[in-house]
Design brief:
It contains eleven helices and four strands. The chain has helices at residues 10-27, 36-44, 56-70, 75-80, 116-125, 127-141, 163-171, 198-213, 217-231, 235-245, 252-260; strands spanning 84-92, 152-155, 158-161, 176-184.
Length: 262
C-alpha cells in the first residue's frame, strides 16, 4: 500500500522508539540494568524488522503501548502529523508548560497546568518543600533503571510526555532540558494527515456492524458520519480502512464503502 512518506522520517521513528525504550524500563522494572542495551537495540530496529509490515505494524505498535499502558491521548497523532516538524534540542525551562497537574510537584504551587517557571520559582523560595520533593522524586526513580536523561516531548510549549523529567530538572536547579520539539507548519495548530491506528478504525466499525445487524439505519448513518470525520485527516487511515479494517463479508462491505464514498 502507498503510505505518506513522512511516516518513515527518521526523527519520527526516533521519538517513537525513545518513548518505548523509556516505558520498557517501567514495565520491566525488575530486570537488571545490563539487559536493556540489547532490548534497546532491538527496539531501534523495529522499523526495519522483517517480522513487521512497515510502517503499519510499527505505528500500530507504538499506539498500542502508548494508549494501552498510559492512555497517551493524541500521542500518535502528534508524532505522525505531516504538519508537525520535529527536532531534538535543549529547551529553556522558561519556555515550558506542564502538560498535566503533576501530583506532589505542581500541586504544591497551584491548580491546573502551570508554567515551569512558576514551579521553579516556588521551589527556589521554599527550600524545605524543594528538598522534600527532591527526595520523593529520587525514591521514585530508584524503582527502575535510569531513564531521567531521555528527551521529553513538547508541542506549543506544552509537555506531551516527560512531565516527571521536567519536575526532576526543576528541583535539581536545571534551567534547560533535552526535548523533542514539535512545531506546526500550518496556521491551524491541529494535527493533519497523521497515522490513524488500524485498531481505532476496527473498534469503531464494530458499532457500524451492530447498526447493520439490528437494521438500525439511523445509528448506521450516525456511525458513518463519525467514521468519515475520523478518516478525513488521514491518508494512511483511509488506506487501512479500505484494505484491512472492513470485513470482506457481503453485502455489508459494499454498503459501508458506498456510505463512505469509496
Amino acid at each position: 500500500m502507498n503510505y505518506p512518506k513522512h511516516l518513515e522520517e527518521k526523527i519520527r521513528e526516533e521519538i517513537a522508539t525513545t518513548y518505548v525504550k523509556h516505558e520498557i524500563r517501567k514495565l520491566f522494572w525488575q530486570l537488571p540494568e545490563n539487559y536493556f542495551p540489547l532490548i534497546d537495540n532491538n527496539i531501534d530496529c523495529w522499523m526495519q524488522s522483517p517480522e513487521l509490515a512497515i510502517p503499519r505494524d510499527f505505528w500500530n505498535g507504538i499506539h498500542g503501548i502508548a494508549m494501552g499502558f498510559k492512555l497517551k491521548i493524541g500521542f500518535i497523532y502528534l508524532i505522525t502529523a505531516e504538519n508537525v516538524k520535529w527536532e531534538r534540542k535543549m529547551v529553556s525551562i522558561d519556555d515550558l508548560i506542564f502538560g498535566v497537574s503533576f501530583e506532589k510537584t505542581t500541586t504544591d504551587v497551584g491548580e491546573g497546568k502551570l508554567r515551569a517557571r512558576e514551579v521553579f520559582d516556588y521551589y527556589q523560595k521554599n527550600k524545605e518543600a524543594k528538598e522534600e520533593r527532591k527526595l520523593f522524586i529520587k525514591e521514585l526513580r530508584t524503582r527502575t533503571c535510569d531513564r531521567d536523561g531521555d528527551p521529553i516531548m513538547v508541542t506549543n510549549g506544552s509537555v506531551n510526555d516527560g512531565n516527571g523529567r521536567l519536575a526532576d530538572a526543576i528541583v535539581n536547579d536545571k534551567t534547560e532540558i533535552l526535548a523533542y520539539v514539535g512545531t506546526f507548519t500550518t496556521e491551524e495548530k491541529v494535527p493533519k494527515n497523521y497515522w490513524l491506528p488500524t485498531s481505532v478504525i476496527i473498534d469503531h466499525l464494530f458499532f457500524v456492524y451492530e447498526a447493520i445487524r439490528n437494521n438500525n439505519e439511523k445509528m448506521f448513518d450516525q456511525q458513518i458520519e463519525v467514521l468519515k470525520y475520523m478518516l478525513k485527516d488521514s491518508e494512511s487511515g483511509m488506506e487501512e480502512f479500505k484494505e484491512r479494517a472492513v470485513i470482506s463479508r457481503q453485502p455489508d462491505r459494499d454498503k459501508i464503502f458506498k456510505a463512505i464514498g469509496v
